[in-house]
């Protein structure tokens, strides 16, 4: 894992997206060192719009660009988008904003952060890039789907000559992350348990608990209460418990956030997820 930490201000939708088997698509990857966040400027809305479409429609993962003309641009990085909005990781999106010497602003689709991390290809604000790819005008901005990009003496290949992606998103279940044993006292339930008076009873579906461990306060996702209670585990404020959990590069309200493999309290041990992080409270659709 990289040294940067993702600060997430969760909504129910974001939490749900985070906790699926594919949750690590944005939290289980390390971000390139040296990527500096920049305050939103005029291109921010354009870049944000591009980032929203970047998962498929913008990049056109099935688009064959064979035979189409490519162009090379030299430009300076002027904006690095953040994943998860203004509080997310710098350059968490696959798109960056650049400005050429003539003053033209372009959106470069340079592939996901984990590709740049894997290839040791950081991009920082102010870097002078030389990018070759396909220009694809969009509503309100000019996109270049990058085939190769050069930064200093390093070159990154992003797509092949047909425009096919040269990256494959890693399987979060195969990242080799060990799970730690964390013991502490329950000091709250719910996503706002750190706020005085905002702890909720352990009867909700979001399954978030806040514990006070020796290392400090930690948020964890322990699955829906109905699942744990059916297994004989009922939790209350002040209970001591041990979490066997995966530490991920995510935080909730500036506190570490972990994904819990199993929880032990009062002699009751309940497994919550498989070793591949699949929630055990969800039905197996293959059956």
Describe this structure as you would to a colleague.
The chain folds into two domains: 1-29 and 170-287, Nucleic acid-binding proteins (OB fold (Dihydrolipoamide Acetyltransferase, E2P), Beta Barrel); 31-157, Nucleic acid-binding proteins (OB fold (Dihydrolipoamide Acetyltransferase, E2P)). 11% of the residues lie in helices and 35% in strands. It contains five helices and 13 strands. The chain has helices spanning 12-18, 24-27, 44-53, 113-118, 225-230, and strands at 6-8, 71-80, 95-100, 105-109, 128-138, 141-151, 154-157, 179-189, 208-213, 216-221, 240-252, 255-265, 268-271. The strands form two sheets. A five-stranded mixed barrel has the order 8-9-10-12-11. The protein has a five-stranded mixed β-barrel with strand order 2-3-4-6-5. Strand 5 and strand 6 (141-151) form a beta hairpin.
What is shown here, in short?
With 287 residues, the chain is mainly beta. It has helices at 12-18, 24-27, 44-53, 113-118, 225-230, and strands at 6-8, 71-80, 95-100, 105-109, 128-138, 141-151, 154-157, 179-189, 208-213, 216-221, 240-252, 255-265, 268-271.
């Amino acid at each position: 894992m990289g040294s940067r930490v993702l600060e997430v201000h969760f909504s129910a939708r974001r939490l749900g997206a985070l906790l699926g088997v594919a949750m690590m698509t944005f939290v289980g990857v390390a971000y390139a060192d040296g990527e500096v966040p920049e305050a939103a400027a005029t291109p921010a809305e354009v870049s944000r719009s591009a980032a929203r479409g970047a998962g498929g429609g913008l990049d056109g993962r099935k688009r064959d660009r064979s035979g189409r003309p490519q162009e090379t641009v030299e430009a300076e990085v002027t904006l690095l988008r953040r994943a998860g909005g203004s509080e997310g990781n710098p350059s968490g999106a696959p798109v960056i904003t650049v400005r050429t010497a003539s003053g033209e602003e372009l959106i470069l689709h340079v592939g996901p952060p984990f590709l740049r991390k894997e290839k040791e290809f950081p991009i920082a604000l102010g870097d002078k890039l030389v990018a070759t790819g396909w220009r694809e005008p969009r509503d309100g901005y000019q996109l270049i789907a990058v085939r190769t990009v050069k930064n200093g003496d390093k070159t990154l290949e992003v797509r092949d000559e047909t425009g096919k992606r040269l990256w494959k998103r890693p399987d979060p279940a195969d990242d080799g992350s060990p799970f730690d044993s964390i013991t502490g006292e329950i000091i709250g339930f719910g996503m706002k348990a750190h706020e005085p008076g905002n702890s909720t009873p352990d009867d909700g579906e979001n399954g978030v608990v806040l514990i006070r461990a020796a290392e400090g306060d930690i948020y964890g996702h322990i699955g829906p209460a109905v699942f744990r209670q059916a297994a004989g585990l009922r939790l209350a404020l002040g209970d001591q418990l041990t979490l066997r959990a995966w530490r991920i590069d995510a935080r909730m309200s500036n506190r570490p956030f972990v994904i819990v493999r199993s929880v032990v309290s009062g002699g009751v041990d309940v497994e919550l997820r498989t070793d591949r992080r699949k929630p055990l409270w969800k039905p197996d659709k293959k059956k």
